[in-house]
Design brief:
single chain, 347 residues, mainly alpha, 3 domains
């Protein structure tokens, strides 16, 4: 799905990039380095001076060019840079994150910034821990929100869900008009999707169609809406809950349990069958074996909010898992979990 699926990101693989780096450093027999042709990705923008191949210093030009970001990066280059650092799990620090945020805000109105590019840069800012209030000027926040609103109709449902999750991680609170537009963008393509047919398509083709929310996309959408304290429309609520229940086996525990808690916190309508699935199925699907104590606390809180009593076997299983984790923060969470279980057992 292009950028949004985080697969197929344009650009050479890391091993090719490393090979190119090594070739650049090889010396001629006479001691001088052989000149290396500059690839298309490394060509300077129009009106930008060519710099040394050994050390390229980017200076902010007096006037911006039409296809560069801050006069240094194209839209795709900025997106690939953010994506690559996320994949490498590298935190470049707050100064770098703010520089990327400035480039994003200054360049997001350019034609080269599409839905995927915007999503990947927002993903980088979210992973690096930047907060919305840390942007130096409020106008940048307005520019990013305005551009993302323009791109919502062109975005896949997963891309919209990804932007919601990134903005929630950043601590942003988009206005009502933006949220309504995001809801419409998701509903427009997913309302008529048959989940069974979509699953069959995934099995035969290896990937879901572009009109469907992925399992992780569904979970992240619910988690983001709860973080923003935004209750979706009844139609979208039913769609998200139905998709979460249907795909629960394919949602990793670290995404599933925050989504279940979000469903309970938002008070989304659930049928008795869906409630049973959300409460009991994670244990049968062995999700508890692959989660942190914080995830157990999230699930127990959801059960408490729904005011249901799953039964002694469920409580014994959760308590047994919690008792194995008695050190440090896990121990504090285990004690919190014990208190929640006590309240559930008093129903």
């Amino acid at each position: 799905m292009g950028y949004c699926s985080l697969q197929g990101c344009p650009g050479p693989p890391l091993d090719q990039a490393c090979t190119r780096e090594v070739k650049q450093k090889r010396a001629e027999p006479g001691g001088e380095r052989r000149p290396r042709p500059v690839s298309a990705l490394e060509q300077p923008s129009v009106g930008q001076p060519r710099t040394s191949s050994r050390m390229q210093q980017v200076e902010e030009p007096e006037q911006r060019t039409g296809d560069g970001v801050g006069g240094a990066f194209s839209a795709s280059s900025l997106a690939m840079l953010s994506y690559g650092l996320c994949i490498l799990n590298f935190d470049p620090g707050p100064a770098f994150a703010q520089a990327v945020a400035r480039s994003l805000a200054d360049s997001c109105q350019e034609s080269g910034f599409g839905p995927q590019e915007l999503f990947l840069v927002l993903m980088g800012l979210a992973h690096w821990g930047l907060k919305w209030q840390q942007l130096p000027e409020a106008r940048w926040q307005a520019l990013v929100l305005a551009r993302s609103a323009q791109l919502l109709p062109l975005s896949s449902p997963d891309c919209v869900a990804g932007k919601l999750w990134c903005l929630a991680q950043l601590g942003a609170r988009p206005p009502e008009g933006w949220m309504r537009a995001a809801e419409s963008a998701i509903m427009l393509r997913t309302a008529s999707v048959d989940l069974v047919e979509e699953e069959e398509s995934r099995r035969h083709r290896g990937q879901p169609g572009s009109s469907a929310l992925s399992p992780v996309g569904t979970a992240r959408c619910l988690t983001a809406l709860a973080a923003m304290r935004w209750v979706p429309t009844p139609e979208l609520s039913r769609l998200l809950v139905r998709a979460l229940c249907f795909h629960s086996a394919r949602v990793p525990a670290k995404h599933l349990f925050p989504a279940i808690l979000a469903t309970a916190e938002l008070g989304l309508p659930v049928t008795p069958e869906q409630l049973r699935d959300l409460v009991l199925r994670p244990a049968s699907e062995r999700k508890y074996e692959h989660c942190h104590t914080a995830n157990l606390v999230q699930h127990a809180r959801a059960v408490l909010l729904w005011r249901v009593r799953p039964g002694g076997r469920w409580a014994a299983l959760v308590r047994n898992l919690a008792n194995r984790r008695v050190d440090g923060r896990e121990g504090m969470l285990a004690r919190e979990l014990e208190q929640i279980l006590g309240e559930i057992e008093r129903f």
